[in-house]
């Protein structure tokens, strides 16, 4: 019999629920690796199929891609995981390196998801702003 709080790779709450009795920094870092792999898989499959594999190509094509359910699902997973990760050093002064790694990978996943969709010619491009915010977040990990 499985416990009520067991998660699998297919669990819909994999990136939003982190059960205290079974989740530590190591488990969160594994979840972050899974998230990054999903982002890479999405990019590899979707960009190749759509022919939009190069950043800056066909802004309208990238906008159509970002309007798809598949894009919204991956973007939602990145944001859910980022917002539900425990803060670093929250449980005392000792920094858990696995939790730090998980935070770094979430920012990497966010940058990786948006990097092919940056339109440098459009002022206020959402993907450019998102990548910049993720880069600042990753940099803040070093400063803290």
3D architecture notes:
By secondary structure, the chain is mainly α. The protein has one domain. The chain is 60% helix and 0% strand. The chain is built from 5 helices and no strands. The protein has helices spanning 25-50, 59-66, 69-84, 97-114, 126-143. The longest helix has 26 residues, at 25-50. It is globular. It starts with 24 loop residues before the first helix and ends with a helix.
Distance between the termini: 43 Å
How big is the Rg? 16 Å
Average pLDDT confidence is 82
State the helicity in percent bands. Answer: 55-70%
Structural class: mainly alpha
Can you tell me the residue ranges where pLDDT is under 50 for at least 5 consecutive residues?
A: none
User: Sheet bearing the most strands, described?
Assistant: none
Count of domains: 1
- Beta-strand portion reads under 5%
Number of helices: 5
Instruction: Categorize the overall geometry.
Output: globular
Outline of this structure?
The chain has 144 residues and is mainly α. 60% of the residues lie in helices and 0% in strands.
What structural keywords apply?
144 residues, mainly alpha
Element layout with pairings:
Blueprint: H1 25-50, H2 59-66, H3 69-84, H4 97-114, H5 126-143
Helix pairs in contact: 1-3, 1-4, 3-4, 4-5
